Amino acid sequence: MEIWINPACSKCRTALSILDEEGATYTVRRYLDEPPTVEELRAVLDRLGLEPWDITRTGEPVAKELELTTWPRDADHRDRWIEALTRHPKLIQRPIITADDGTTVVARTDEAVRSVL
């Protein structure tokens, strides 16, 4: 299992605490230091069944600079969104957990974290 975190994020710290309490074995990826590649992000999105705009933190200053809220949310613009997320990983919603069986969740709630255990 791998968890993408920002150590400054309280939701990430909560997710790690739950994983530790449950005795889960996992690898931490500090995705701001080691951003996902385009291929990795595509794979995670496929596993999540979501589109890049679904996991974008549009309230971040860089999102405002890029004017992301004005970008079309359709298949023709999907690659543009993915490129933005890989170039600016702070835009990626967190934490994201990918379990060994392929189950992947945006683990912002206790229930979502527990769903991969």
TrEMBL record:
It comes from the Bacteria. Pfam families: ArsC (PF03960). Signal peptide: none annotated. Keywords: Oxidoreductase. The keyword Oxidoreductase applies. The keyword GTP-binding does not apply. Belongs to the ArsC family. PANTHER family: ARSENATE REDUCTASE (PTHR30041). This is Arsenate reductase family protein. It comes from Nocardioides eburneus.
